[in-house]
Amino acid sequence: MSSKSPNAVTPEPVFISHSSVDGAMANYFVEQLLVAGAGLSASQIFCTSAASSPISAGTNFNPRIRQAISHSRIVIALVSRNYYRSPFCMSELGAAWAAEKLLPILVPPVDFGDLEGVLHGVHCLRLEDERKIFEIYDRLREANWHRPNPAGVYAAKVKEFLAGLGGQLAKLPSPDVVDRSEYKKLENQVEELTSKLKASIVSAEGLRAAAKPAVLELARKVIFSVPPIAANGTTTGAVKPSGGDTEFSDLVERVSRIGKTVPSVIFRMVYARAVGSEAHFRVFESEAADWEAAVDQGLVRPYDDGEFYLNFQSARVSQLHEALRAVDDFWAAVDVEYRLDYEVSCRHIPSIREIDFSRKWFGFWWEEDPEDIPF
């Protein structure tokens, strides 16, 4: 017989990060897409604006939020204009990014060009993009803690959701209603943190000596404000894999070597599979010849539904997939300081799921037409 402390908190696997003034829109998103569409229960979702808010009266707000993010499996951030004006949202965003649980969704009129800080270069979804919104369903379908509704149910709810989205967006208050003094206070805090961090990295020796958990956490908060070169002209001590890290260089070289043995469409398709987005893969007109070659070489297999799927019986396909996964496994295994050195130097997260990382090391991003970014 199991027992539970009366003060124990049941962790919710899905955390909804949103501005409090966008509460009605957040509720609409949760009820239409996550509950009615994907089949999640209210008890699986942490959303402070929900009618069944997980924060009861008298609960200390900040520790409960931190605990919820820590215990969650995925943090869905509804990034609106109001979101960027909220210090609480910025804190939640930083915590989710550091924990690698973040799934950011852009709320119109916010667009990719508006992104800054930790979201710069991160793969984001558009709330009004029917095709992209299916990535939420794919993430839940792959989870071992939830069995979602059939895809047809979710698809129907997506259409209902999009039909009513315009009305919800029209109700969103202007970000100018947010207290500007509160935002200014946050800016001052960021400047103070930035100043402290810059002082701690006067030299590579200084960074190594100060590399304690508290400093590393500080660095994560202001990572994109740190220059790669210290004031005295010395380097920050950041690892540059292309020149000094043999293991990582070998992994990248292996991916590139195997990638050259398959048509570009297969390289992109395997990449999409490796990052869990194969369901949204599409072929461009510029790849027609490559697609025919892939079929002729047995790299894909036809099915009764008229679709073609990767043939993992092919050594080239399976080896390329394993090589890509090995790159992510490498970064999952390194220590925090080593990873931080890379992020400070390259200004992006080391993961095959990040656009900037993929372009830097493999020369392309799997969603783009290879005619625009050649292999």
From TrEMBL:
Residues 10-144 form the TIR domain. It comes from Corallococcus exiguus. GO terms for biological process: signal transduction. Coiled coil: none annotated. This is TIR domain-containing protein. PROSITE patterns: TIR.
